[in-house]
């Protein structure tokens, strides 16, 4: 079961989506950005999902500071919300541990992102 840290402006909404749609496959936790990023670095959790106003600042900036730029990915930006197929491709194209997205894209991004993370962890093809 994946352990996912939910951070940023829509942390509660992100947690609720994960609990509702991925019960038994993922556990969701709400922590401040710095604590969540440390949990990822220490191997206590698997992934970090952070929402902010731009998708590439705020919440994901803390993950970049703790985990390094190469372990982090901005999934959505203002004016650009990728579809599920595009999100899946992003997940499979690297070994990122932290993902940032625009708070208004939470309902679209989180289900696609978490499904891709679960599938990848189970070894399913892209």
Walkthrough of the structure:
With 126 residues, this protein is an alpha/beta fold. It is globular, with a radius of gyration of 13 Å. Helices cover 44% and strands 21% of the residues. It is built from 5 helices and 5 strands; from the N terminus they run E-H-E-H-E-H-E-H-E-H.
Q: TL;DR of this structure?
A:
The protein is an alpha/beta fold and 126 residues long. It has helices at 11-21, 33-41, 58-67, 84-92, 106-121, and strands at 2-8, 26-30, 47-52, 72-74, 98-102.
Throw out a few tags for this protein.
five-stranded parallel beta sheet, Ribose 5-phosphate Isomerase B, Chain: A
SS element count, helices: 5
Uncertain parts:
none
Shape: globular
Gross CATH architecture: 3-Layer(aba) Sandwich
Give average pLDDT, whole number: 96
Major sheet? 5 strands, parallel
Task: Give the SSE layout.
Blueprint: E1 2-8, H1 11-21, E2 26-30, H2 33-41, E3 47-52, H3 58-67, E4 72-74, H4 84-92, E5 98-102, H5 106-121
Parallel strand pairs: 1-2, 1-3, 3-5, 4-5
Helix pairs in contact: 1-5, 2-3, 4-5
